[in-house]
Amino acid sequence: xxxxxxxxxxxxxxxxxxxxxxxxxxxxxxxxxxxxxxxxxxxxxxxxxxxxxxxxxxxxxxxxxxxxxxxxxxxxxxxxxxxxxxxxxxxxxxxxxxxxxxxxxxxxxxxxxxxxxxxxxxxxxxxxxxxxxxxxxxxxxxxxxxxxxxxxxxxxxxxxxxxxxxxxxxxxxxxxxxxxxxxxxxxxxxxxxxxxxxxxxxxxxxxxxxxxxxxxxxxxxxxxxxxxxxxxxxxxxxxxxxxxxxxxxxxxxxxxxxxxxxxxxxxxxxxxxxxxxxxxxxxxxxxxxxxxxxxxxxxxxxxxxxxxxxxxxxxxxxxxxxxxxxxxxxxxxxxxxxxxxxxxxxxxxxxxxxxxxxxxxxxxxxxxxxxxxxxxxxxxxxxxxxxxxxxxxxxxxxxxxxxxxxxxxxxxxxxxxxxxxxxxxxxxxxxxxxxxxxxxxxxxxxxxxxxxxxxxxxxxxxxxxxxxxxxxxxxxxxxxxxxxxxxxxxxxxxxxxxxxxxxxxxxxxxxxxxx
Length: 515
Prior knowledge:
This protein is an alpha/beta fold. The protein has helices spanning 6-16, 69-75, 91-100, 104-107, 129-135, 213-226, 259-262, 270-273, 289-312, 345-348, 371-381, 398-402, 482-498, 502-505; strands at 33-37, 79-81, 84-85, 139-145, 154-155, 158-159, 184-188, 199-201, 206-207, 238-243, 319-324, 349-350, 352-355, 363-365, 369-370, 413-421, 433-442, 445-451, 458-465. β17 and β18 form a beta hairpin.
């Protein structure tokens, strides 16, 4: 699913023509650098600028009352999407889509990765975004949370053992042969002690810095940018991914966030923090709101430190910077304790901001971007569209970032995917996954259909007219909205067929969904 590079290359040409010397000789600029920062469980609504002039009129929701000064400035320099979607809003499945440009049924990661799920792990034979950048001559560096590998008993300090003692093991060490082109490594699988993080470096040495993880990762990224210890080849462009864990849970105490950030929220009534009319302020979880928003502000500060370093080092102009997330956080919306894995806007709708000075004109755009589109789009923005692997299912949307009126189809729908554990073997290991729900989001509607595990018949449905009901308070009956349901199911069926989804393969709900 590739797109023409005409718009991308014209943007790069624009940048290069600005590098003329006095004798009128045009100096070709280097390939752009790229930094992709994606904190975990960061919902799109938790950015202060959505409540400010120039942005509030572009969305139909109320911004969370958060302090994000760096993102506020960054947004005014960026292409900002209102409708980027995490199609399978869980950590590992999203990361599989992000890295491979393929949906969970093809990326190798249909479920969150842990040692009880050998069927869910990033495909070693897939050509990931980092593989392509590496092959194109980039230095590739990964910092922070990966959570895309099936844990193995390969602890570098204790061979033959997992890196943690609990079962199932969730955390994982990723050896060099599974790093997909990343030649610099400072990462871990998944570990939720935010002020006691740990990382394995390129050589497999473990580091335990005793520092709030986003701020520590920002320091490590800046060290890499400054090349203080010869971390990178300065003759090469760089591709950096930064997987911050906060504002992911836990968000209960000052062990989970920085006190200076918590102080901004601690004295506010919950009714002033949980401003969405679909939020249960009386829920037990509501007490987490000040800590969640404190983590949001702390992530903003860490992100700002990276941006400041780019500017200080003179790297700002030729570096594409993306701020995104893997999925959202309901935070008591819809009165659910589950922060993710649902079609609700707080779960699926993620931040997506792209800054590319002198190439991308800042604006807010509402085209619907799906997670598998990210990988080919990043490559397209760097002029590598022709190197997008054939098996990639996402679309290169770089032309739309370059020009809102680009001559290509603007995506206006995204699939929703939920998978659960399927059959298990005698040892309790998951052998299959169950495609429990499929749905579709358009500019106007959200539809999700849930099936019974035994009969595979419809057991529940969600249908919201988001354009009139942005907080999804009214679940519309399918039988009373037959024409809308037919249109959505026809569209969804075609998309599921296109990606060879299990629902298409098994002809699930074919009385409703047209394949």
